[in-house]
Write a structure and sequence with these properties.
2 domains, five-stranded parallel beta sheet, Helicase, Ruva Protein, domain 3, Rossmann fold, alpha/beta, two-stranded antiparallel ribbon
Length: 323
Amino acid sequence: MDERTADRERVRPAAPTEALAAVVRNIARVIHAPAKTLQLCVLCLVGEGHLIIEDYPGVGKTMLAKALARSLDCSFSRLQFTPDLLPSDVTGVNVFNQRSNEFEFRPGPVFANLLLVDEINRASPKTQAALLECMQENQVTTDGTTYELARPFIVMATQNPIEYEGTYALPEAQLDRFTMRVSIGYPPLHEEAKMLTEQTGEPPLDTLEPVSTASEMVALAEHARQVYVEESLNHYVVSLLRETRSDGRLYVGASPRAGIALLRVAKARAVAEGRAYVLPEDVKAIAEPILAHRLILAPEARSAGLTGLHIVRDALDRTPVPA
């Protein structure tokens, strides 16, 4: 270990590691899913990103979002996206107050620390676009006035991967604003049997207590921003992105925004691992959920049965890892 690495080890924080682990453990009381999946959700929040949970009906997508909100003791809003939903139903609207003889702004559900958007692809593109500004800039602009959103702020959207009738596919600009996409999957036999007992008695979500606060999550996000990154690691991330852009099986590769998201979550993972610096392993561990959903495959690649995950894995294999 060189002197610079030793210095970074000496300033390694212990409290942030335990704080993140406590949130993951608390969510695991409600959701029977792989620990890595639950950790990714928390890392997405600390990395100041947004999350798509894409999985089959009934596996706990909505419950996962609720469990995260209750674990943090933060404000929570839920929106059921439907074809008749309007943009103002998301962001808020100016209403005329007859007493004061002026318009006043009534905030929409987006003004919360955690916004759950159920079945995001069931609303029209016009309504989906209402999320673009708040997801990228943490603000909402209505009638020329800009309103800041509270921190932390995360959009957790759910999607059904098998039912497309009456849905509107998310445009590339929207997908690129989601930091990562995860799936919960079906639990193992013994876990599912345990879940039946829990959910038919006193559901764990009803008694879930907070183990952290919104302000602590903001502090953790600020702490993650200060995590050290070698210049060679920046080049590694860019090389990985460029591997996807030069892949003939894709129409569109990973954007610069994808690289920013990759590094932010890698910093959050370093904090979770008790380090004050990022390793290539941090990038490799999170590359698939962060990059795969952003890649637009060519028709011949789709017909061959390829997915974004295959492309990301190939890019990881081809990209030299810095020593």
